[in-house]
Sequence to fold (218 residues):
Amino acid sequence: MHRLRLFLYASIYRLTHNFSIISPRSRCDNCQTKLKPFELIPILSFLWQRGHCRYCATAIGWPSLVVETTGGFIVAGIICYPLRPKMILLVVLMFLMLTLAILDSKTLSVPTYLLALTAILAIGYQPSSWQFLIYIFSIWLLAQLPLRRFNQIGLADVDLIFIIYWLSGLTQATIILLIACLSALGHFKIRPHTERIPFIPHLALAFITWTIIYLHIS
Fold:
């Protein structure tokens, strides 16, 4: 699982810079020094290096620690459950949402293909009747036109809200949305001069946190 988290963060960085996710080896963004295996241990390497590159002392940045910590939280949250196909699919969905969160925080945009993949896996995780799928899709289509005139919320945010609704149901999705809104409000209070706050990170972290809590209390 820790290798998955490493691959996730490396993939996020490479996707945002239009690099291949296969090669070359991981290296410092600033001095381009290739990193050794012991410098890629999740969380521990960040803490040991005090959040800076060992070679040029450039700050590594908070996204690395957030991804590693959240990835650890996901693994710790589901490790006591049997790894059945549905649980594995849920973990994949959580890591996909984490990927979307970091991409949105860095670029205020997310790739359409990643959103589409998340939606397809969500339907596979929570299959339902074709009638219900058509009903949800119709509401999503109707929401597109008015939201294009409302610049404070991105269409990708709406897409992810519908995906969360499909995965969690109306009651749980409402709780998740409330948590995300409160989190975004706190973000705005801390950084009031930010022109636009990315909402997908708040949605994704609220979904991951509440889903793991709900798994343990239900």
Remarks:
- DSSP finds eight helices and no strands in the chain.
- The radius of gyration is 18 Å.
- Helices lie at 2-16, 44-48, 62-78, 85-107, 112-125, 130-148, 155-190, 200-217.
- The CA atoms of residues 55 and 149 lie 48 Å apart.
